[in-house]
Q: What sequence folds into this?
């Protein structure tokens, strides 16, 4: 029943004006299935739309991202996480993101007591990946994302302590002729199977953008 509900929700997303959504998680080359382990939007009105309010709790895990989902994906120490972004999560059309959307990509993690119960918003996030503008290629990370069919891959730091985490890929873009930054965050729920005990010292709140206007301009 839960999988059927997820399929219906993904299908309904096609009625939304297409921006993009983190819709699929791949763990070390194994696709976990559409929407599996990912906190998904509940309403078609904003499902693929960006978050623009820097003070909103939606900036953490996207719209309705304060609510956990029932599945947590297991990841081995040093595993590879691949996040897939789609304009049409129901696969009714192909596409990743309109090419007019330019900006960097980042990935954050948060160590939590419960990957399902933690609301996401608030302190504890730390950055493990960032890709911005490549001057040699004259391309933003979003350009590379489009060329790579929406796939963004990172290696989980091998020194991280085992336990439950939220993993947050984020695209931050500006549309041409628009100075308002748009954020496309999402959160995957994972259990990291590791015998390490290290937790990062440099942690930030998802209000990291408060008080300043990030601008992906060259």
A:
């Amino acid at each position: 029943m839960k999988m059927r509900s997820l399929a219906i929700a993904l299908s309904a997303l096609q009625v939304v004006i297409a921006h993009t959504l983190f819709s699929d998680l791949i763990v070390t080359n194994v696709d976990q299935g559409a929407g599996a382990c990912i906190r998904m939007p509940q309403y078609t009105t904003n499902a693929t739309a960006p978050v623009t309010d820097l003070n909103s709790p939606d900036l953490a895990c996207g719209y309705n991202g304060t609510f956990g989902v029932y599945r947590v994906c297991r990841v081995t120490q040093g595993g590879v996480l691949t996040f897939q972004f789609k304009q049409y999560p129901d696969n009714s059309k192909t596409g990743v993101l309109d090419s007019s959307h330019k900006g960097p990509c980042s990935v954050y993690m948060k160590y939590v007591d419960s990957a399902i119960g933690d609301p996401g918003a608030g302190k504890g996030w730390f950055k493990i990946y960032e890709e911005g503008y490549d001057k040699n290629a004259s391309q933003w990370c979003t350009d590379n994302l489009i060329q790579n069919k929406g796939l963004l891959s990172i290696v989980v730091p091998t020194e991280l302590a085992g336990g439950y985490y939220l993993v947050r890929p984020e695209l931050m873009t500006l549309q041409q002729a628009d100075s308002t930054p748009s954020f496309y965050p999402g959160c995957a729920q994972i259990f990291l199977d590791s015998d390490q005990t290290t937790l990062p010292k440099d942690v930030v709140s998802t209000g990291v953008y408060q008080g300043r206007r990030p601008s992906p301009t060259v």
